[in-house]
Write a structure and sequence with these properties.
The strands form two sheets. Strands 2-6-7-8-4-3 form a six-stranded mixed beta sheet, with no helix packed on it. The chain is mainly β. It starts with 5 loop residues before the first strand and ends with a strand. It is globular and about 45 Å long.
C-alpha cells in the first residue's frame, strides 16, 4: 500500500493561514503535500485569484494525513 503525495509549486491559502509571528504564517492542508523549501513560491488565496506575493517555506510537517506549512512572506503585492 502506498502513500498518496501531491507536489505543489504554488501556495494556495483559501484564507486559512494563521499568523504565528510578525511575518511567519502557518497553514494546514489536507493530505500529504510536498513544496519547495527555502525557495520563493507564489502565494494566492485561490488558484484563480491574483497573486498576493511570494513566500519562502521554512518548515513542513506531515501528520495524520495533513500537511502543516510554516512560511514567511518575502514580498507582498497588496496590503491587507
Amino acid at each position: 500500500m502506498g502513500m498518496g503525495l501531491e507536489l505543489n509549486t504554488l501556495l494556495v491559502t483559501k484564507g486559512k493561514e494563521i499568523r504565528v509571528d510578525d511575518n511567519l504564517f502557518q497553514l494546514e492542508k489536507e493530505g500529504y503535500r510536498l513544496y519547495p523549501i527555502h525557495t520563493p513560491i507564489e502565494v494566492k488565496t485561490t488558484k484563480k485569484s491574483p497573486s498576493r506575493g511570494y513566500a519562502k517555506i521554512e518548515k513542513i510537517q506531515w501528520h495524520e494525513d495533513k500537511t502543516t506549512i510554516f512560511y514567511q512572506l518575502i514580498s507582498l503585492n497588496t496590503t491587507n
